[in-house]
Amino acid sequence: MRIVILTGAGISAESGLDTFRDAGGLWARHDLADLATPEGFARDPALVLDFYNQRRRAACAAKPNPAHAALARLQKDNGDQVTLVTQNIDDLHERAGSDPVIHMHGSLFGALCGACGHRWPAPKVMRLADGCQACGAGSPRPDVVWFGEMPHQLDRISAALARCDLFVAVGTSGAVYPAAGFVDLARDSGAETLELNLEPGDRASAFDTGRAGPASDLVPAWVDEVLGR
Ligand code: APR
């Protein structure tokens, strides 16, 4: 059975990382226009670098939870039948053993030069003064996808959705496209669709089945079902 899994901030919530749209989430405390847009970065690069330095520090201090571990187990047991796509920029899937992980919104652990497009591993703390390692231009940025920018690997994701038998969304509000539309692509290709979320997301009605609860309960139970345990 070919499975595509899409995860969002909710799968890392029990690891202590902030979500965006829950009460007290990042976009309840910060203006996303200042911190997650190219315009915001152009206005105040130091503010944006500091925001992502804080999130990188939090991600390094966090530990994968049973939901990340269960998805890694599923991937190990099912090889290339499982495509794991995440909107998250933390590395908890990788640290739980998942490989490959498609980071459609990029990663806290990558740096990107806005001038020449060069990419390199991000230092723990990115500073304005750190020029680009290739062209020397100033203010390199975190290699993350901001609002108004094109998410990564959409062709690969669409191809996987077109041929999957099951699409599962975990810990995402379904508020942001194109990820929020993956359920439609999967359904149109005849796949079954399942939402595993603390509470029904914005696209809940598009899913065949929805289970509400914390990811660290729902995901291991679901993986055990799939693995026939
Ligand atoms: N277990 C399962 N789901 C949870 C948990 C939990 N412990 N805690 C919260 N959730 C759910 C919330 O109910 C919510 O539906 O996770 C979802 C988190 O939604 P958002 O905060 O909107 O995060 P996400 O869906 O990943 O956001 C998508 O928006 O700002 C952009 O680029 C950012 O990738 C992000 C995108």
What's the domain count? Answer: 2
In round numbers, the mean pLDDT is 97
Compute the number of helices: 10
> How many individual β-strands?
9
Bound molecules: adenosine-5-diphosphoribose
Give, in spatial order, the strands making up the sheet with the most strands: 3-2-1-7-8-9
CATH architecture of the largest domain: 3-Layer(aba) Sandwich
**How much of the sequence is in beta strands?**
15-25%
Name the helicity range.
25-40%
Sketch the topology as an H/E string, one letter per element: EHHHHHHEHEEEEHEHEEH
Please tell me about this protein's structure.
The chain has 229 residues and is an alpha/beta fold. The chain folds into 2 domains: 1-15 and 64-105 and 151-229, 3-Layer(aba) Sandwich (Rossmann fold); 18-61 and 108-144, SIR2/SIRT2 'Small Domain' (2-Layer Sandwich). Helix content is 35%, strand content 18%. The chain contains 10 helices and 9 strands. The chain has helices at 10-13, 26-29, 32-35, 38-43, 45-61, 66-78, 92-96, 154-162, 182-188, 215-226; strands at residues 3-7, 82-86, 102-103, 106-112, 119-121, 141-144, 166-170, 192-197, 209-212. The strands form 2 sheets. It has a 6-stranded parallel β-sheet, with helices on both faces. The protein has a 3-stranded antiparallel β-sheet with strand order 5-4-6, covered by helices on one side. Bound molecules: adenosine-5-diphosphoribose. Residues 8-10, 13-14, 19-22, 25, 87, 105, 171-173, 175-176, 197-199, 201, 214-215 line the site of adenosine-5-diphosphoribose.
